[in-house]
């Protein structure tokens, strides 16, 4: 009986520590859903985050990556760009730059229900792991997309600000989207200047106030 009580007490203590731990403590978060149900996140709380939607470019992207310093912006890249940009991806991985999956327009996944799974598999093949974050190119997330992503243990990120002209003014909690497409493109020099002008936070730290770490355990 005492043994059973001890086990119950230990379990209760563990649950308590997990839920009341201060948000400013560094924590190791599992690499799967960071929300309790299918949810599209568009804004944080603790700082400012820059995300870059990348579907086109080579030489200027290499220049941008060369000058980047941590904390890095979070790149969302399309599967088509991945397939033709393996050397650049290697640079990003060597610098531990966070990479998410940039999909197609939201309605496309209703017309083609198998597309999301295919893109996740392509990402996994190119990166060596599934994406933790996904966003559609038009920032539309139909219920079907939310449910499919949830089943695949992939989180959905939109944004609160979009760079479509002048340099945007960011407030605490903002998640900025920067387009680097063939048909719509922010000037790389302006982007570099913005990244160096102030301090930015990773997505997870901005949203949850937690530092995102990964840990490899021996088999």
From TrEMBL:
Top-level taxon: Bacteria
Name of the protein in question: Polysaccharide deacetylase family protein
Source species of the chain: Psychrobacillus lasiicapitis
């Amino acid at each position: 009986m005492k043994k059973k009580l001890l086990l119950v007490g230990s379990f209760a203590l563990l649950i308590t520590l997990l839920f009341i731990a201060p948000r400013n403590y560094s924590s190791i978060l599992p690499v799967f859903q960071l929300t309790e149900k299918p949810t599209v996140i568009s804004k944080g709380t603790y700082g400012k985050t820059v995300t870059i939607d990348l579907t086109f470019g080579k030489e200027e992207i290499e220049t941008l990556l060369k000058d980047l310093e941590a904390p890095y912006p979070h790149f969302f890249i399309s599967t088509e760009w991945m397939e033709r940009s393996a050397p650049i991806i290697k640079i990003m991985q060597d610098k531990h730059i966070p990479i998410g999956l940039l999909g197609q327009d939201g309605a496309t996944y209703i017309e083609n229900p198998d597309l999301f799974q295919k893109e996740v598999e392509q990402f996994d093949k190119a990166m060596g792991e599934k994406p933790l974050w996904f966003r559609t190119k038009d920032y539309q997330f139909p219920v079907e997309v939310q449910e499919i992503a949830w089943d695949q243990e992939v989180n959905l990120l939109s944004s609160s600000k979009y760079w479509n002209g002048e340099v945007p003014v960011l407030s605490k909690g903002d998640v900025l989207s920067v387009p680097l497409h063939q048909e719509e493109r922010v000037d790389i020099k302006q982007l570099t200047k913005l990244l160096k002008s102030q301090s930015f936070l990773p997505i997870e730290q901005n949203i949850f106030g937690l530092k995102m770490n990964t840990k490899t355990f021996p088999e």
